[in-house]
Structure formats: C-alpha cells, structure tokens
C-alpha cells in the first residue's frame, strides 16, 4: 500500500485504541472500500491494468461488409442489381438469408448506391472484402468494399488533429550486459514444467547459478535471438522479446494471433512470425499468415497472407505442410535479403524496401530447394531431373542482386540433393544421392564447391565404399574440415576430411576413418578442432569427445537416453539433455570440451535447453592469433583463480560437513537421553524382560583360539 | 560378496522383516504365502499357508514366537512362527495394509484400506498371551485421513502411532485418546504418496519414502524433518542401517512402464546414502523390476531386498563396506 498519508504502525495502534477497536480481531483483507473512492490509497494493480491495451470487443458485425459505389437504380431495376450483387458475392461465401440489404431513398425511391451484405462467418466477409475491393462492375462503378466494423471505427476518428504526446526519452536497458560478466561465464535457458529459468553456467563451482526465473513465461517455447541479445517468448496473442541487465524486461511485443513459429534474421534486425489456421471446413483453403517486424522498433514491416499451398516448397508434387523457416535470410549479417521458394520461382525480397528484388520473382523451373551462403549474397539452388532423365538435375550458384549465375553443375540420375554450407561461406558441399544402374537403390557422393577461389572449382568426392549410407555430415565451423558418419550396419564408421591438403592446388583428402562407432550425430565445437560423436536414440546416448587436430579420442561418456546436445557459444562446455520425449531421466548434464562430466541436474518434464548465443568477437584476427601464441601467459592467471576457487570449495565443503555432523550429534545425544529416561517404562511394557538392547547393538567379540594337542608320539627309525 | 538369490515367491514381493536376533527373515508377497528363510544362507525354512490374497505386511514378536500378517483377503492372521499354525484371524471389511507389534508385543496396530465405501482405519488390537483368550475387539480405532494408509507404526513407549499414506502427510496419533497430535508440514514434507516408513531400532527417528522421488528422515517425537535424500526415481522401500550411518533406498520406474524402455532406465538399484551427509554412497544392482521391500539385518552386516520381479536378494556386506569413508 502506497498510502498518500502514510501512518506508521504505532500511530494506527494508538488511533485504534482511542476508538476502542481491537486490531487483532479485524481481518484487513475483508475491508472493502466504497467503490470509486480510494481514500487516497493507490492500488498497486492499477498500473498493470492500464498497461494492457483496451480489450477488443466483438461487435457482432464482423461478418458484415459494406459495398459502396454501386449504380443508383430505380425500383424497376432493383431486382436485377440485387441479382448481380448476389451472384458476385455468392462466389466468395455464403450470404445469410436476408443478409443482403440495399437501402432506398424514401423520397425518390432510388437506391442510395450502397448495400450491406451479411455472411455466415467473419472469415468469409474478410475474404469477400479482399477479393472484390476495387471490382469493376463497369467503367464508372468500381466497388469500394469495407468491413462494417471499420466504418464505425473511422467515424469515431476525431476531426481535429491533436499532436501526439512526446514521451521523455528513457534510457534503454543495457541489453548486452551479460557479456560483461567478470568470470566470462555463459548463460543458458531451460524450460521444465511451467517454469522457465535462466542460469549462469558456473563450471568452476560445478553448478548452475540462477539469474532469473518465471512461471508461465511462454505458452509454447522460448528462443534466443542469434546474437543472444533477446529472449523471445511465444503467446496466444503474439511473440514478445525480453532482455536487460539483471532481470529480463519486456522490450517489445509483436502482436500476431495464434503465432506458431518465429524466426530471427541472423543480424537481429527482423523477426518473422508465422501462424496458420486450419479451416473448419475441409474444402476451404488452409490459410497462413506471416509477419515481418523490425526487432528494434517493433514495427510491422510487411505481412504475407495466403493459402498454405503458396508457401509450400514448390515442385510439382505439391507437398502438404510447410518447412520452417519459410523465409531464409541472406546477405550475411546485414540481413539484406530474404527469400522463399514458390512454384517454379524463388521470391527474393530486399529489406531496404521490402519488395521483390527487381520487382519480380526469380524464375527457375521446377526448383525444389535453395539455400543462402551464410556470409555472401549467393544463392545455391537445386533443380531435379526432368523428363525421365532427358534433362539433367542441376545445382547452381546465383549472385544477388543481378541474378548472375556464378557456377552450375549438371548431375545425372540423381534422386536427391542436400546442400551444406561451411559457416564462413568458403565451401559448399552438396550431397548427391544417385540411382544405381538398376534404379533399385541409391549411392551417395559429394560435390565440393570452393566458393572463394577463382571460377569456383568443384571437386567430386566419393567415399571408399560408395554404397555406404550417409548418416550425418557436418562442416567444422570456420574451418576446412568436415566429418561424415557412414555405413549401413549397427556400428557405422566416422571419417574426417580436409579441404586443405596437397600444396598449392588444394585438394580434398581423408584424414582418418574411425571404425565401428556408436554414433549417429555430429556436434562440432563452435571453435572447431573438437567434435562430439553422439549416439542418440537407438544408441542410448553414447558420447565420444574427439580431437581432430591430433586425431585422438579425448574421452568417452554416456548420457543415458540423451536426446539433445549443444555446445556453448565459446566451445568450452557441452550440454547434453534428455527432454521430455520420454518420461524417464529428464534433465541435463554439463561436460567440459574434453569430455569430463562437470555436473548434472535432473528436472522432471524437461522441455528445452538453449545456450545464450554470443555476438562474434570484436578482436581482430591478428589480435586473436597473438593471444593464442601467448596463451601460457594468460592462462597462468586463470589457473591460479581456478585453484583458489577449488580450495575455497573444499573448505566450504568441510565446514558444511562439520556443521551437519555436529547437528546430528545434538540429535543423537537427545535421543540417547530420552532412551535412558524411558528405560524403566520400557522394561515395564516388556513385563520386566531385562535385556534392553534393542536387538541390534549386541556387542560380541569373535576370538580365534588356537590350541594344540598332542595326540600321539610315535618313533620310527629312518635309515 | 555375491548376493544370495532366494526364489520362492511367484509374485512381486511386498515386505521383508528380520526377527530380533537376525537369524530369520520373513518375506511377504502378492502370492498369498508368507515365507520364512534362514537369514544367513537363504535356505527356505517354511511357509505360512492360509491367506487368500496378497500379503502386504508382517511383523514378528520380539521372542520370535508369533508372526502377524496383514493381507488383501481382508484379514490379519496370527501365526505360530515355529509350527506355522494359524492361531487367530482378525477379520475386517477391507484389505489390511500394514501391521506392527508394539513394544512388549501386547498390542498390534493394523491399517485397513478404504474399500467399498468404508474409509481407511487404523486399529489397535490386544494380543493375548494365550491364543485361546484372543478376541477380535479393537482397543482403539482411528478414522480420518483420506486415502490409503500405507504404513502405521508404534512410536516410543507405545504412546504414539505414526501413520503415512496416500495423502502424503505423516501423522502422529495419541494411543490413549486417538487424537491427532502432529501433522507433517505440506511445504517441506512429501509431495506424493508415501509408500514406506521405517522406524530406527531405538524408535527415535524414522525414514519415509515417497513417489515424489525422495526419502525423508524425521524425528519420531517432534516430527521435525531432519534430512532429505533426493532420488531420481519413485521410492518404494527404505531402511535404516542399525550399525553405520547409512540408509538404503529402493524403488524404480512404475511397474507398468518397465517393459517399455531399456532395463537401465528402470533404475532398479538399491541406493545407499550417508544418513548424515545425505550423499549417495553407491548402489546395488540386480533386480529386474522395482524394489518393493528392503530390510537390514539387525546386526547391520547384511541386508535383503525384495522386488517386483518376485526375488529376494540377500546381500552380506564385504569387509570394505564398513571402511567406507565419506
């Protein structure tokens, strides 16, 4: 209570005494102030109430549209016009019975040039408005269609303009504060049950250090923005992003009803939200809505609406269901372009204007897949084989803007292609599945593009046993190596290749093959060099921490039933988690990069684990190199710190143990005393049976007694 | 040392009890027939035939002459340990869940399940010295707690009865008046069904295990929560070592889910915890179903576990067990 005229407690007590009231008999919660009068006491809830926007009320006219600019007709032609309108609008939806009303001027008996149409549903009305606004009945009669509700709203707009109130500038929160942590720790978010929690990974103390937690923070999931600045939550009404210094404050809200997916642009400039509405009537189209917001201002930059078919991956197949993200971002960290695939075309938009590049889509017949280079404005796209093999499949690289084809490769008897970009955009690997001659099975090869070299040379790589199935493929982040899991058996092989071997003209070559590994997923450290070979699902969570520089296994481990693995953004720690795909074993483990289990946290109903990403380092490559050269100098300081912490920890531990022991001893002393005092009584209960040892502490000594006994003495003469 | 595998029950084990000297082990199972074994080598000594339903609990008198068993056939039977003859049958109108002899063995506390509209009860019966004088009158009947009462035991000097069950609250009752004396705190106490309760030898403290994946140690007089042992599985059985500061806790994934995942996922180990430091010491594997019953030999040198798999496993501790330092 923030009372305007605050009384101190003793004053209140005095006052009550004077009035003859016993305060202890009064239940304060039961006191109700007369409505409308707050006695100068402000409620704490008020702010919250006002902060929420005024709720929208259903007027009940959501399914009514107003069609203006109709011809003005006499009563003779009334029926004809009505017939025409009915014909136009029954195409888009079902007009309610008696739902078409064309008012007539009572003086002249002429129509007034507009009519109202009531549909069965609001959705139909909306569709009718979209489709017929601007409909040309004839040259002089172009329909102007509005929602009935909108007219009402526009009527209420005041005629006189009042200048908007300019709010005083408030300094924003320090959104990058977490990067200034003295111990250079990383944060992560977890979601378990209804609670979302954010922790520091305090690996030195071998435990997570809580930062912030909140119940019912999100309706479905949470997601960090790509540079870690924001945490996004998803709600029925839209998405929200949170960030700030110590607590997480809401930075912006992005209204989007029933939002299902969200996606950030890599440079954190934009947020894409997506919702889809399954039609109640299966004949209706399944509609989707995409909004693109400016992340910093919260402004809606562009929305896309349409039926789900428009947004599914092109091709002739017409696949149902969308693959998220629909929009792929290109042009590196500047978020210059975003693109989506459509039928026989790729739609590339510029973020400067939010319209199509060159104002038209990029036509590519039968394109089925595309991807952006992570750093440059280069598109890689894949067109499958056509005409029963007469027209070969094709992978091509296209520069944006300008749509210049940089490189193209034709491929024959292809069943499928998958593209993998290296994180610096230096290499592109295309995994090509080809049919064997009989067309009964497929085998796999790789086409390796060197993007940064002149003319983009392509190398073909086939595995030693080209019939091996490829289980996983992963580029070393920022590096020149990649790892492949291949094989058909229950224990596949893992091979490492390098793009930088063989002198001046670099060639791809194999570094090593590890035989018979229980692995089906690859997780490179974000700093490169180290990789976790993981056996998820069927392999029950086998982990192998491998050093690719020295080609040796550093450690093996197991996180039983593990479902998710994620490196922290610095490559120092690995988190393995069991999410609530199944009920047992839920929780997460934190490992060091070299495979030492640091700590484990069990959590029931564990849904999500995500490290907070970091923006790229601000150090120049030269500076970074210098640091790594003089690593010893720097590491000394940290090693000393580590030692201090571990000493302090063991000291703490000792103290805690001693305290526990002492506490326990006071308990046992008390019990012993009770036990002694009650001895007589117990004896009585047992009818005086003397032995009061409670059956257990019977101390006896086992003695081994050696005894010798002479049985017989017998003499024998030996010769 | 290798455990001794005691096969004899055809259904899941429910309860295990050593006699005071620790030479006999009594086991109860869902197969109607309580069994007595030599606690040293696991040889089967005999069975007690007569029940017509799962046997949930038993207790043996201090002088090892009387055995009392509670069964789902709505009866509690009194047996002669040596001959296996039935001495008396107490009949109820719902299954009997737990039985416990008082100090002096003159009284026995019995809990019955809620059944067909009857609420759960805690009843105290007087045990006559001569079975011929035995009557079925209750000295005391307590009704009140909702849901099943899984265990009720005597407190120090038979002055109190401590009960725990499905409503996850531990209660202390006055045995003279039947009044409720104390209730465990909802915040700090168990959050789900309490499945087991084990009293220390001197009745000063007791250990409870619950489906909320924890076991808790309480003071038997003040009902103060002393320790919490956090587990990663529902707890079905607990026991306190009479010799060293250890407790053993067992349980596992619910029986209905056992076949659905890997055997290791079930967590059917008996886990040893340091009673004071609350740290895990180690685990004893072996069962291929949840552990339903645990008991320490009164000399503290061996323990036995009974599982949903129908086996009793008798473990004699290795010498290095006693030299474990935390």
UniProtKB/TrEMBL annotation, chain A:
The keyword Protein biosynthesis applies. SUPFAM superfamilies: DPP6 N-terminal domain-like (SSF82171), RNA-binding domain, RBD (SSF54928). One of its GO terms (biological process) is formation of cytoplasmic translation initiation complex. InterPro entries: EIF3B, eIF3B_RRM, Nucleotide-bd_a/b_plait_sf, RBD_domain_sf, RRM_dom, TIF_beta_prop-like, WD40/YVTN_repeat-like_dom_sf. Component of the eukaryotic translation initiation factor 3 (eIF-3) complex, which is involved in protein synthesis and, together with other initiation factors, stimulates binding of mRNA and methionyl-tRNAi to the 40S ribosome. It holds the Pfam family eIF2A. HAMAP family: eIF3b. This is Eukaryotic translation initiation factor 3 subunit B. Keywords: Cytoplasm, Initiation factor, Protein biosynthesis, RNA-binding. Belongs to the eIF-3 subunit B family.
TrEMBL record, chain B:
SMART domains: WD40 (SM00320). GO terms for molecular function: RNA binding; translation initiation factor activity. The keyword ATP-binding does not apply. Its main location: cytoplasm. WD repeats lie at residues 6-47, 48-89, 142-183, 187-228, 284-314. GO terms for biological process: formation of cytoplasmic translation initiation complex. Pfam families: EIF3I (PF24805). It is found in: Cytoplasm. One of its GO terms (cellular component) is eukaryotic translation initiation factor 3 complex, eIF3m. Belongs to the WD repeat STRAP family. HAMAP family: eIF3i. Component of the eukaryotic translation initiation factor 3 (eIF-3) complex, which is involved in protein synthesis of a specialized repertoire of mRNAs and, together with other initiation factors, stimulates binding of mRNA and methionyl-tRNAi to the 40S ribosome. The eIF-3 complex specifically targets and initiates translation of a subset of mRNAs involved in cell proliferation. PANTHER family: EUKARYOTIC TRANSLATION INITIATION FACTOR 3 SUBUNIT I (PTHR19877). Component of the eukaryotic translation initiation factor 3 (eIF-3) complex. This is Eukaryotic translation initiation factor 3 subunit I. It comes from Rhynchospora breviuscula. The lineage of its organism: Eukaryota, Viridiplantae, Streptophyta, Embryophyta, Tracheophyta.
């Amino acid at each position: 209570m923030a009372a305007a005229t605050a009384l101190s407690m003793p004053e209140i007590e005095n006052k009550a005494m004077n009035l003859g009231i016993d305060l202890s008999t009064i239940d304060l919660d039961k006191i109700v102030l007369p409505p409308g009068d707050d006695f100068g006491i402000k409620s704490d809830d008020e702010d919250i109430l006002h902060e929420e926007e005024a709720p929208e009320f259903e007027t009940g006219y959501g399914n009514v549209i107003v069609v203006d600019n109709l011809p003005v007709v006499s009563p003779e032609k009334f029926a004809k016009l009505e017939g025409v309108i009915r014909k136009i609008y029954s195409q888009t939806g079902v007009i309610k019975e008696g739902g078409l009303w064309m008012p007539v001027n009572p003086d002249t008996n002429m129509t007034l040039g507009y009519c109202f149409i009531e549909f069965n549903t609001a959705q139909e009305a909306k569709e009718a408005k979209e489709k017929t606004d601007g409909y040309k009945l004839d040259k002089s009669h172009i329909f102007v269609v509005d929602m009935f509700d909108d007219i009402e709203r526009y009527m209420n707009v005041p005629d006189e303009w009042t200048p908007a109130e300019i709010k005083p500038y408030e300094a924003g929160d320090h959104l990058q504060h977490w990067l200034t942590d003295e111990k250079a720790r990383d944060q992560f978010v977890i979601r378990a049950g209804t609670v979302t929690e954010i922790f520091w990974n305090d690996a030195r103390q071998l435990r997570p250090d809580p930062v912030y937690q909140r119940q019912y923070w999100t309706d479905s999931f949470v997601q960090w923005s790509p540079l870690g600045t924001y945490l996004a939550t998803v709600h029925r009404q839209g998405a929200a992003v949170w960030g700030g210094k110590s607590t997480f404050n809401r930075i912006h809200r992005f209204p989007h009803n029933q939002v299902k997916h969200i996606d950030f642009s890599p440079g954190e400039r934009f947020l894409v939200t997506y919702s889809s509405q399954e039609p109640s009537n299966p004949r209706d189209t399944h509609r989707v809505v995409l909004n693109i917001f400016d992340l910093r201002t919260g402004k809606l930059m562009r929305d896309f609406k349409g039926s789900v078919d428009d947004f599914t991956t092109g091709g002739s197949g017409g696949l149902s269901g969308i693959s998220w993200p629909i929009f792929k971002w290109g042009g590196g960290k500047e978020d210059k372009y975003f693109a989506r695939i459509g039928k026989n075309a790729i739609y590339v938009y510029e973020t400067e204007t939010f319209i199509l590049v060159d104002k038209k889509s990029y036509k590519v017949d039968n394109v089925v897949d595309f991807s952006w280079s992570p750093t440059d404005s280069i598109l890689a796209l894949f067109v499958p084989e056509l005409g029963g093999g007469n027209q070969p499949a094709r992978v091509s690289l296209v520069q944006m803007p300008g749509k210049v084809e940089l490189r193209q490769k034709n491929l024959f008897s292809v069943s499928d292609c998958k593209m993998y970009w290296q994180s610096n955009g230096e290499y592109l690997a295309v995994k090509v599945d080809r049919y064997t001659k009989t067309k009964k099975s497929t085998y796999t090869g790789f086409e390796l593009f060197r993007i940064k070299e002149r003319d983009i040379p392509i190398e073909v790589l086939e595995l030693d046993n080209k019939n091996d199935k490829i289980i996983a493929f992963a580029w070393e982040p920022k590096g020149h190596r990649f790892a492949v899991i291949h094989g058909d058996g229950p224990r596949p092989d893992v091979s490492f290749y390098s793009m930088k071997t063989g002198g001046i003209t670099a060639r791809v070559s194999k570094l090593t093959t590890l035989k018979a590994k229980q692995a089906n997923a690859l997780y490179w450290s974000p700093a490169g060099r180290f990789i976790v070979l993981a056996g998820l699902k069927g392999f029950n969570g086998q982990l192998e921490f491998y050093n690719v520089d020295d080609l040796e296994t550093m450690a093996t481990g197991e996180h039983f039933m593990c479902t998710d693995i994620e490196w922290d953004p610095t490559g120092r720690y690995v988190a393995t988690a069991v999410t609530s795909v199944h009920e047992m074993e839920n929780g997460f483990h934190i490992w060091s990069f070299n495979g030492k289990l640091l700590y484990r946290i069990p959590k029931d109903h564990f849904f999500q684990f995500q490290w907070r990403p970091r923006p790229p380092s601000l150090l120049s490559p030269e500076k970074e190199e210098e640091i790594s050269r003089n690593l010893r100098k720097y590491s000394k300081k940290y090693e000393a710190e580590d030692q201090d912490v571990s000493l302090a920890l063991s000291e703490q531990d000792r103290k805690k143990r001693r305290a526990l022991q002492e506490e326990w001893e006071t308990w046992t002393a008390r019990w012993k005393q009770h036990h002694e005092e009650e001895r007589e009584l117990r004896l009585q209960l047992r009818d005086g049976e003397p032995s009061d040892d409670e059956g257990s502490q019977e101390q006896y000594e086992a003695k081994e007694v050696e005894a010798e006994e002479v049985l017989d003495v017998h003499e024998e003469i030996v010769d | 040392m290798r455990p001794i595998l005691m096969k004899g029950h055809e259904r899941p084990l429910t309860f295990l009890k050593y006699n005071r000297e620790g030479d006999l082990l009594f086991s109860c199972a869902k197969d109607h027939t309580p069994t007595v074994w030599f606690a040293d080598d696991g040889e089967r000594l005999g069975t007690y035939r007569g029940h017509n339903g799962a046997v949930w609990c038993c207790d043996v008198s201090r002088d090892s002459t009387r055995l009392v068993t509670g069964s789902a056939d709505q009866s509690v039977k009194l047996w002669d340990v040596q001959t296996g003859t039935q001495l008396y049958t107490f009949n109820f109108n719902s299954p009997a869940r737990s039985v416990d002899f008082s100090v002096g063995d003159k009284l026995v506390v019995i809990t019955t399940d809620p059944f067909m509209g009857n609420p759960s009860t805690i009843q105290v019966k007087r045990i006559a010295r001569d079975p011929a004088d035995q009557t079925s009158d209750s000295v005391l009947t307590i009704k009140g707690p909702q849901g099943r009462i899984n265990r009720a035991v005597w407190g120090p000097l038979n002055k109190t009865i401590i009960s725990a069950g499905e409503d996850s609250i531990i209660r202390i009752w006055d045995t003279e008046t039947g009044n409720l004396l104390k209730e465990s705190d909802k915040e700090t106490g168990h959050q789900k069904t309490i499945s087991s309760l084990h009293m220390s030898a001197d009745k000063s403290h007791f250990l409870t295990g619950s489906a909320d994946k924890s076991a808790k140690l309480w003071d038997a007089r003040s009902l103060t929560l002393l320790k919490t042992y956090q587990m990663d599985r529902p707890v079905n059985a607990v026991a306190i070592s009479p010799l060293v500061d250890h407790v053993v806790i067992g349980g596992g994934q619910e029986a209905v889910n056992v076949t659905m995942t890997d055997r290791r996922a079930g967590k059917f180990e008996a886990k040893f915890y340091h009673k004071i430091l609350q740290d895990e010491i180690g685990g004893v594997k072996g069962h291929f179903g949840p552990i339903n019953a645990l008991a320490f030999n009164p000399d503290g040198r061996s323990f036995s576990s009974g599982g949903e798999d129908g086996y009793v496993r008798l473990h004699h501790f290795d010498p290095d067990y006693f030299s474990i330092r935390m």
